[in-house]
TrEMBL record:
The lineage of its organism: Eukaryota, Metazoa, Ecdysozoa, Arthropoda, Hexapoda. This is Uncharacterized protein. Belongs to the short-chain dehydrogenases/reductases (SDR) family. InterPro entries: NAD(P)-bd_dom_sf (IPR036291), SDR_fam (IPR002347). Keywords: Oxidoreductase. It comes from Clastoptera arizonana (Arizona spittle bug). SUPFAM superfamilies: NAD(P)-binding Rossmann-fold domains (SSF51735). GO terms for molecular function: oxidoreductase activity. Coiled coil: none annotated. CDD domains: retinol-DH_like_SDR_c_like.
Length: 303
């Protein structure tokens, strides 16, 4: 799952479809945006710096010759609940429907730091912020009545996670950056599976998936030992952002996945995730803990 693998994903035109991509201005997110534009999506790019989003679109239009699709660029800081609320409000004002939500933004292996709301930064950015964003956009996705998908970009690193301690999800008393990252990725998969089960219960046309894109050579590694001392490993062995985007696009576009929501995708295939991710009690406990953390009473106002 580390070395480059030549998986393939058929790109299909989807004129009139709308996708929201977090962390869409750089790295893996930028490759996702490029491919969605080639499929004629309208792509709403959520990024911390809107000038970076604008620069990406200019590059795609002028240097890469991407003429199809359209974009809206909005400021989004996934570690700020205030920013997430503002972003979702603008998205809903901009578009009456959303077909795809790709929860892609993330950080990895960073020193302990808490957000303004008091959450450990990897837990907040990788998982809890996307939980909140999904809550805010879900009603729109459900009520449009079209087949829609929520894609949580997870990682094989979830396999290294220990059992979540709900009394200390911040890992404040025993913080290990890699362990906190793995925990956040485990949470994404648990959330994807439980959310899909809830959506099935109301006969929604929205499906939820978690995806491991492979180990991708992006700036997420910039502060790690690999980048500092072993960059040649990343260059030779890791996937390019374009290669990493393929499984995400497969989860987004493939008709083979209709009615297979809740699946964990890697190399454009459904694969098994860690055994504990199938534990319905754990799924429910995480979901309720997240609801309580964010003071949400009804998820998406539909569940």
């Amino acid at each position: 799952f580390i070395f480059k693998f030549k998986n393939k994903c058929e790109l299909k035109r989807k004129p009139g479809s709308v996708a929201v991509v977090t962390g869409g201005a750089r790295g893996l997110g930028a490759s996702i945006v490029e491919k969605l534009l080639k499929c004629d999506f309208h792509v709403i790019i959520g990024c911390r710096n809107t000038s970076s989003g604008a620069a990406l679109v200019r590059k795609l239009r002028t240097e890469k010759g991407v003429t199809s699709g359209s974009t809206t660029i909005l400021q989004l800081d996934m570690e700020s609940n205030e920013s997430i609320y503002s972003f979702s409000k603008l998205v809903l004002q901009t578009r009456p429907k959303i077909n795809v939500l790709i929860n892609n933004a993330g950080i990895m292996d960073v020193p302990y730091r808490e957000t303004k709301e008091g959450f450990e930064s990897q837990w907040a950015i990788n998982y809890l912020g996307h939980f909140l964003l999904t809550h805010l956009l879900l009603k729109c996705m459900h009520e449009c009545g079209e087949l829609s998908r929520i894609i949580n970009v997870s990682s094989c690193a979830h396999m290294c996670s220990k059992q979540i301690d709900f009394t200390d999800v911040n890992m404040m008393y025993d913080y290990v950056p890699k362990a906190a990252y793995a925990q956040s990725k485990l949470a994404q998969i648990l959330f994807s599976k439980y959310l899909n089960q809830l959506l099935q219960g109301i006969n929604s046309k929205v499906q939820s998936f978690a995806v491991h894109p492979g180990v991708v050579n992006t700036d997420i590694f910039d502060k790690t030992v690999i980048r500092k001392f072993l960059n040649w490993i990343a260059v030779l062995c890791f996937r390019t952002p374009e290669e990493g985007a393929r499984s995400i696009l497969y989860a987004t576009l493939s008709e083979d996945l209709n009615n297979k929501g809740g699946a964990y995708i890697s190399d454009c295939c459904i694969v098994n995730s860690k055994a504990c991710t199938y534990d319905k009690k754990l799924q429910k406990e995480l979901f309720q803990h997240s609801m309580d953390s964010l003071n949400i009473k009804s998820f998406g106002s539909i569940l």
